[in-house]
Amino acid sequence: MFDLDRWQEIFQTISKNKLRTALSGFTIAFAILLFTLLFGIGNGLKHTFEKNFAGDSENSVYINSGRTTKPYKGLQSGRQIQFRNDDSKFLNEKFENEIQFFSPSIQRFNVQATYKGEQNRYTIRGVYPDYQPLESAVIQEGRFLSYLDIERRSKVVAIGRMVEKDLFGGYSALGKNINLEGISYKVIGVFNDPGGDNDERFIYAPFSTIQGVYKENDEVDMFGLTYNSKLSADQALAFSNLLTIMLKEKHKVDPRDQSAIRVYNYAEGTKNVQQFMMVLNVIILFIGIGTLVAGIIGISNIMVYIVKERTKEMGIRKALGATPKSIISMIMLESVFITAIAGYSGLLIGVFALKAIGNGLEEYWIVNPSVETYVVIGATIVLIIAGTIAGYIPAKRAAEIKPIEALNDE
User: Fold this and answer.
1) CA nearest neighbour of 106 among 90, 88, 94, 92
2) SS3 37
3) Nearest to residue 25, comparing CAs of 303, 223, 235, 403?
4) Inter-residue contact 250 to 281 (CB < 8 Å)
5) Strand locations in 253-407, DSSP E?
6) Separation CA 13–CA 331 (nearest Å)
7) Vertex 133, ends 128 and 136: CA angle to 5°?
8) Is the pLDDT of residue 44 over 90?
């Protein structure tokens, strides 16, 4: 039950011992504040990696070609590897069970796009409809490319949100025609991308259309695909390694040549990031626990001092008929009250500090530093429990002292 007299007594004790109370509160508040900032910065690093990997599907594989650096089977080094349409058929036949989505791609950089009086330069990609999930592009208006567009070699495009903003201002681009290096294309869709503004400055057109405009033969610049999501990270890496070996064999490339055919599997990056984040979590947890332990030690020392200081007071209380239980509960209630208020204050300061920082540390790879409330509240509860235990032991000892001994204590 709520005991008004007990609380009045606690507030009176606190007001008479301002320095002691301030020192106790500062120790607790500082521990929670530091704990909050550490976890917030750690989460900021996590957000950075999540942001960097947001633009593409985590099970994506991209295949690019280059020049050979080693002679092989009578062929000299320096030979340019050129992918063609038959490589698409080859990959899909050999890896039918592993491939989920697949698209050849042709890229043209700095293509001038014009709409009425507005113009700008963008990268245009000739792709298949399966390319959409590779880039995690989300259609916000209209639609993406279709296989009918591929079959008909339609002059249609899906443009990024920033392209629409640049060329059309605040108006919708859907159904309008834009000019790309003298050729008119109809806008059939507008997409946004979790990768941010840069990924929203692309223009996607049917692969067959772009190949017919910019390639004399059936040349392909690169391939993009996603593998079966049921594959583990190790299985995915084994799949991309086998894919690399077979492509090198098909194009007569030395197996040791790292430049002629380059395969980038996001599983490798994801695995490395997961390992890094696990190490980072351990470090943050270690530092966080160290911070809490330091706070607990500080509380313990202060509580021992408080109880020692109040030994004579406890002797008077016992002489007047107070039971050991009532004395201990009074000290414990005061300890919990101070710890809870100070801990919550430290939590609020930490949260507001992280909000004030915002993206100000983005240049140091820390994006949107924040902390889950339940983590810090849990840490505060741990400190409260620790403060209670730290105060209970010396309080119990002092409460058991005989009144005459307590009154004679110096």
Assistant:
1) 88
2) helix
3) 303
4) no
5) 261-265
6) 10
7) 125
8) no
Token couple for 238: 């084994």
Are 102 and 192 within 8 A, CB to CB?
A: no
Q: Are 383 and 28 in contact, with CB atoms under 8 Å apart? A: yes
pLDDT at 1: 45
pLDDT in tens, 139-165: 999 999 999 999 999 999 999 999 999
Torsion sign (Cα): 101, 104, 108, 109 = positive
Q: What is the pLDDT of residues 167-203, one digit of tens each?
A: 998 899 999 999 999 999 999 999 998 777 888 999 9
Q: Yes or no: say if 10 and 324 are a contact pair by the CB < 8 Å rule.
A: no
Collapsed DSSP state (helix, strand, coil) of residue 22:
helix
Pair 127, 103: CB distance under 8 Å = yes
DSSP 81: P
In eight-state DSSP terms, residue 70 is S
Say whether 100 sits in a helix, a strand or coil: strand
Sign, CA torsion 283/285/286/291 = positive
Q: Which residue has the higher pLDDT, 229 or 303?
A: 229
CA angle 352, 357, 358 (to 5 degrees): 95
Which of 319-343 are b and which e, b meaning 16 or more Cβ less than 10 Å from the residue's Cβ?
eeebebeebbbbbbbbbeebbbebb
Cα angle 254-255-261, degrees, rounded to a multiple of 5 = 85
Rg of the chain on CA atoms, in Å = 34
Give yes or no for residue 309 having a pLDDT over 50: yes
Residues shown for the chain: 410
**Separation CA 157–CA 375 (nearest Å):** 47
Give the integer Cα–Cα distance in Å for 60 and 227: 7
Q: How many CB atoms lie within 10 A of CB 186?
A: 13
Axis-axis angle for helices 311-319, 266-309 (nearest 10): 60
- What residues are paired with 222 via a beta bridge? 64, 105
Partners of 341 in the β-ladder: none
Cα–Cα–Cα angle for 46, 233, 366, rounded to 5 degrees: 10
Q: pLDDT above 90 covers what percent of the chain?
A: 38
Q: Largest alpha-carbon pair distance within the chain?
A: 106
For residue 218, the tally of other CB atoms under 10 A from its CB is: 14
Task: Tell me the domain boundaries of the chain.
Answer: 4-52+272-407, 60-266
